[in-house]
Amino acid sequence: MKVLLLGHRGMLAQDVLPALAAAGFTVIGRGRPEVDLTCAASIRQVLADVQPALLLNAAAYTAVDQAEAEPDVAMAVNREGAAHLAAACHEVDIPLLHISTDYVFDGLASRPYREADQTAPLGVYGRSKWAGEQAIRAQHAAHVIVRTSWLYGQHGRNFVKTILRLAREREVLRVIDDQQGCPTWSRDLAQALVRLCHRLQQGRDQFPWGTYHWCGAGSTSWYGLARAIIEEARTFETLRVQNILPIPTTDYPLPAQRPRYSVLDCTKLQEVGGLTPRPWRASLHDCLQELYTCPPTSPVTS
Ligand SMILES: NC(=O)c1ccc[n+]([C@@H]2O[C@H](COP(=O)([O-])OP(=O)(O)OC[C@H]3O[C@@H](n4cnc5c(N)ncnc54)[C@H](OP(=O)(O)O)[C@@H]3O)[C@@H](O)[C@H]2O)c1
To answer: What's 43's domain CATH number?
Structure first.
């Protein structure tokens, strides 16, 4: 089965591509400048050139804070881009597998969010991703939208790599402790996407199209995650950091408001895909093991 992977230089996509290839899929990765989500013609062209059986979109505008200053750009990529993808996939009659975010929720829930729960994004990024989801639902029935959260991995900029850098540079780290979420290793999400691709390969007729949640099992705060990162890292190197202090969000104001609680309930995908999310702490351990023993190109930089 031939899969076209868009946004192939992104953090998630760089784990998805080898995972799909290892599972026997033919994966063609494409991205800018050849394929720009804001340009419908470039999407149609790549579909005509590659002729995939499935489009997996890992491309998105992901600069959460910058989005507040340039909402038009975020909307052009995440809303209009998703609409272009859905229309193009509909034209050539192939399924669209798309990634979305926990930031579609406002974080006021008191139990993990289910797929059908009311969305109420707090910022431009979340609104743009939600609008993209809606565009896909409206235009192309053969879609799977997988919402995930707090992604980190070997590639790209992410919280884990930033904390490692700061822990080498500073004696004291202050980290937000009143936002709760589910850290997700991009490698684990990649495996879940591979499983979905396998299901799609078995046939479209009985496929349960729709929206799913997938993230690491269990939850923590950014502070809890930072502590765990540093604890793991100390088995590999001596760090400068001496104190990690929990702070409220109000002590670290950022342009975009984040949900205080964005724990995702992954039961639906567990039932449909026969998958079990890995505890976030075990995945973090494995990710750091890999970062230290086989770093991407330069060692653990953000
Ligand atoms: N990171 C997280 O914590 C997180 C959490 C929840 C959900 N998600 C979702 O997970 C998905 C993957 O995220 P990620 O962290 O892997 O993202 P990422 O590392 O920022 O990669 C995004 C990719 O999208 C590409 N892109 C941006 N604008 C584009 C455009 N107009 N046309 C074509 N490609 C474009 C970028 O291309 P260039 O290389 O050319 O810049 C980049 O390769 C996204 O849908 C994101 O919303 C992420």
So the answer is: 3.40.50.720
> Within a domain: residue 57?
yes
- With a CB cutoff of 8 Å and minimum separation 6, the contacts of 14 are 8, 153, 154, 155, 156, 186
Tell me the one-letter amino acid at 91: E
Query: What is the domain count for the chain?
Result: 1
Compute, in angstroms, the gap from residue 153 CA to the centroid of ligand 1: 13
Q: How confident is the model at residue 206 (pLDDT cuts 50, 70, 90)?
A: confident
> pLDDT tens digits for 228-278?
999 999 999 999 999 999 999 999 999 999 999 999 999 999 998 888 999
> In the predicted model, is pLDDT for residue 295 greater than 80?
no
Q: Are strands 180-181 and 54-57 parallel, antiparallel or unpaired?
A: unpaired
Q: Which of 161, 185, 198 is nearest to 278 (CA)?
A: 185
Q: Is residue 11 part of a domain?
A: yes
Please tell me if the CB atom of residue 145 comes closer than 6 angstroms to any atom of ligand 1: no
Residues in contact with 76: Cβ distance below 8 Å, sequence separation at least 6, in sequence order: 38, 61
Shortest-distance Cα residue to atom 21 of ligand 1: 10
Q: Does 239 map to a domain? A: no
111 CA to centre of own chain: 21
CA distance 263 to 276: 16
Dist. CA 237 → ligand 1 center (Å): 31
Q: How high is the pLDDT of residue 149?
A: 98
Q: Which two tokens stand for residue 164?
A: 């490692």
**Distance between Cα 63 and ligand 1 center (Å):** 9
Which of 144, 143, 211, 213 minimizes the C-alpha distance to 184? 213
Q: Residue 75 falls within a domain, yes or no?
A: yes
Find the domain containing 70 and state its range.
2-157+184-217+263-278
pLDDT in tens, 107-165: 999 999 999 999 999 999 999 999 999 999 999 999 999 999 999 999 999 999 999 99
